[in-house]
Here is the input.
Amino acid sequence: MLSFWKNILVLAYTILIISASEEVEQQIFLRSNRLLYRTGCDVVSNNPAGDEGYTCGARIQWLQSNENMSYYEASDQVGNEFPDVCGPCRRSTPVSTPSTPSPVLAPSETCEDVWNHAAGVEEYTCGARIDWQKRVENMSDAEAKNFVADEFPDVCGSCRVTSGGGGGDESGGGGSGGVPSQRNKCGIVAVDPNVDNILSSTQCEQYGWSQTGDNSMACYINGRRGEPCVLDYGNDRNPRWMDKNPADCKGDTLYLWDEPYTDREIMNPPQHDGHGAWKQAGKDWAEYSQRWSNELTQARANGLKVTSPMGKYAELMDNIDAFFEGCEIGRGGCSDEGSPGYIDVIGINVYCGSWNTGCSDAVAGGYCCDIAASWSCNDIKDKEFGRPVYITNWSALGAEALPDVQLRAIKSTPKLFECGSHVVDRVYWYGAIMYDETPRESNFLYQKAGSGTLGSEWKDICDEINNAS
Here is the structure.
């Protein structure tokens, strides 16, 4: 018996030693990483700057304490005010000084391409430096990428986020997806990761922005903890959609539930038909908008728009009135422009398929995407929603919808905008998993099609649309 307890004590002591050594190793790693970014400022930290004799370090600390600046903001200001003494503290060139232009990167080079490239004499990779800034300095994904890109432009320059911060992230970072689009007429629906701990910005980067070379496109995934700009009955379980704070959405749009009819049985209470599901969604939005009224009001002041639930074309046309009815019952103010619950945009999912016939170059008798786009646009116009419309899903569906057919849908996109100004305001390419007979991943933007990929073709057609608007 004594031998047994002796072995237990030895085992516990061994675990304690290992844990302690791992903690020491982590602290050494953090200190060494902090030195990577602060060595220059540390050297001059005790140098007097200015007639008062305050040191560079003291001035930085004062700005942090009294002006609520971050370390980097304070360092930049002090470095710029006293360049001869505290210059090493700044991480960027003063506005008045012409900056050296960043090297021109190959169009195909993305942040993912350079993620594992060593940067700096210490040979930490771009990815390791970005992760460290997010973890230790509490930067958003976009802030961390821009910081590292600015520090090492020759190696990590393609990680720079020029807009967004979507995803969120913030280009989604910290879970703030739906990255701001600066009113780009095009967007992307990225692949649902099927887990809660992956940010929408990660998915948007991998399956959207890196494929188009344009991170000004709005992008979202269907719910989950990593996507704060979408409410979803099925995917939002931790936290529930009701517990998502709209202030965490840093994009320009908050998207309500995708196809409520599909999730009718998991609603509370469960519903049995489309009318009931959409009416319940209206009640749910009224409750949500009342709970988060202050946050929604502030987000709206910063430019946030809210969509209706996003429905398949026929489903939405049949049931959108039921949504507004439910919202009115719940006193959600969906039609009151000054209300936190106002619905700014109607979200409609439109697809091109074998049922779209009548063109001379039909595929398997259908997939006349030009006809589908023109008809949809004019029908939306006739509906007179009194609000702009987002086509929140657009792609080709069906067994014949291979990448070349998906390209037909992309090429037809301008026709969705031809039925008059302010009818359709944005179109999102559906680049996520299809759950019907459509060949798996045939709509993903990395697929080769036309003169490049679906991603490059989407970018080209979107440039045409944006330039025409």
Residues 2-89 form one domain.
